[in-house]
User: Which sequence fits this backbone?
């Protein structure tokens, strides 16, 4: 392979690496999944992990997670008052689960359903208006609901008067930007059937849209809330939103609290006697989990890209690398620079004067074999001896010791005085033998 072809491969590999790095850093800004899943396991902006954690901590052992259908879960509870709560984008109840939920409420319990879309089977049992096109989704005539399009709404709770002096803001966000959303509220004038009283509106948004309603059924209460976005991880980052959520759940009973995540997703029925014939069976493995998370998927593709580059350039035979012999560095000089920088940053001029004078005394002892006396014992005889041995004039030595006394006992010594002392000492080092 000639040099031109090698250069082409290198340019191509470098371009691929740049593309991967661009994808990694640029797409990192969109790492969050803004889908309204209301999942309490994954920490998504529109998940319910924080909401569930708050309920679990506040209720302790009274918090029970439902992991099966309502027929078996709620029928076993014969000790009212207790509460049932579910949050999701779509709530799925079949006919048996609908009756199980209504029977649970009739026994004196409370149930709170927080969702954008409710089960049409349930609404057929509590509202006079025919609702929905099918048995599970509430995409039907706008007789029970009315709609409002905007990027944000202002929430409040009413109990004779508004609970919050300032409405609570709830914003629809996608990719870190506000986006338009179709907010749902209960229509005025809807009629109930088979209930034990009149409906009560407990909450609204933007003054005229009612999103939180209580329906008495038997000895219990059914609460419906159409703004689940207010209960998500992203919204609960704000203290005002936390207070709003706390006010909403305060309507529930104080007994056992059943948290339902099972009916948030549509449950398919499988027949153990049916093997699927020629139908392909899918099994989620580790790779499926990696590809389902954007950050892990990005890391996986980058790993594959680097593996490709290694096979392209690193798999061929190369010369054994030669060890580089680095020159021995003078660590004493580096240490001195570090100490000097430290004292200069701390403005410890007197400490630096003392340290330099100690080094001076060590220098005199090692070179001339004489010890420098203390300031109180300093005399002309020592100066004469030092002058003879160092070949430095006596007046210059006296000037050095005088500069030391002036600097060492001056509490207001500034940088200029320190420099003058250094220059005086440096003059001795240059002239001594």
Assistant:
């Amino acid at each position: 392979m000639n040099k031109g072809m090698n250069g082409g491969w290198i340019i191509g590999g470098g371009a691929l690496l740049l593309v991967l790095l661009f994808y990694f850093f640029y797409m990192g800004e969109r790492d969050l999944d803004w889908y309204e899943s209301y999942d309490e396991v994954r920490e998504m902006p529109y998940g319910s992990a924080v909401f569930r954690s708050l309920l679990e901590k506040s209720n302790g052992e009274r918090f029970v997670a439902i992991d099966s259908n309502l027929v078996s879960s709620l029928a076993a509870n014969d000790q009212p008052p207790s509460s049932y709560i579910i949050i999701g984008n779509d709530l799925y109840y079949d006919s048996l689960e609908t009756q199980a939920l209504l029977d649970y409420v009739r026994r004196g319990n409370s149930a709170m359903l927080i969702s954008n879309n409710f089960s049409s089977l349930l609404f057929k049992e509590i509202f006079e208006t025919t609702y929905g096109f099918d048995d599970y989704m509430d995409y039907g005539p706008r007789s029970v609901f009315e709609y409002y399009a905007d990027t944000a709404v202002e929430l409040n709770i009413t109990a004779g008067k508004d609970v919050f002096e300032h409405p609570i803001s709830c914003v629809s966000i996608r990719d870190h930007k506000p986006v338009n959303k179709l907010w749902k509220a209960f229509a005025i004038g809807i009629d109930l059937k088979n209930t034990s009283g009149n409906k009560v509106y407990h909450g609204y948004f933007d003054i005229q849209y009612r999103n939180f309603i209580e329906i008495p059924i038997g000895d219990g209460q059914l609460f419906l809330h159409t703004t689940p976005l207010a209960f998500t991880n992203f919204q609960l980052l704000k203290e005002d939103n936390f207070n709003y959520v706390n006010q909403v759940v305060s309507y529930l009973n104080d007994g056992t609290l059943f948290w339902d995540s099972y009916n948030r997703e549509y449950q398919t029925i499988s027949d153990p006697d049916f093997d699927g014939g020629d139908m392909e069976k899918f099994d989620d493995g580790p790779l499926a989990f990696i590809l389902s998370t954007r950050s892990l998927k990005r890391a996986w593709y980058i790993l594959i890209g680097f593996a490709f580059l290694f096979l392209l350039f690193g798999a061929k035979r190369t010369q054994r690398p030669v060890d580089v012999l680095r020159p021995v560095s003078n660590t004493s000089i580096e240490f001195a620079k570090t100490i000097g920088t430290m004292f200069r940053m701390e403005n410890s001029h007197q400490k630096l004067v003392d340290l330099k004078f100690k080094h001076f005394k060590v220098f005199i002892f090692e070179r001339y074999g004489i010890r420098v006396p203390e300031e109180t014992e300093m005399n002309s005889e020592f100066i004469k001896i030092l002058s003879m041995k160092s070949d430095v004039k006596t007046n210059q030595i006296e000037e050095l010791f005088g500069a030391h006394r002036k600097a060492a006992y001056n509490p207001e010594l500034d940088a200029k005085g320190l420099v003058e002392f250094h220059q005086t000492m440096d003059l001795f080092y240059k002239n001594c033998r």
Summary: The first strand starts at residue 63 and ends at 66. Confidence is low (pLDDT under 50) at residues 130-137, 268-283. The chain has two domains: 29-264, 335-431.
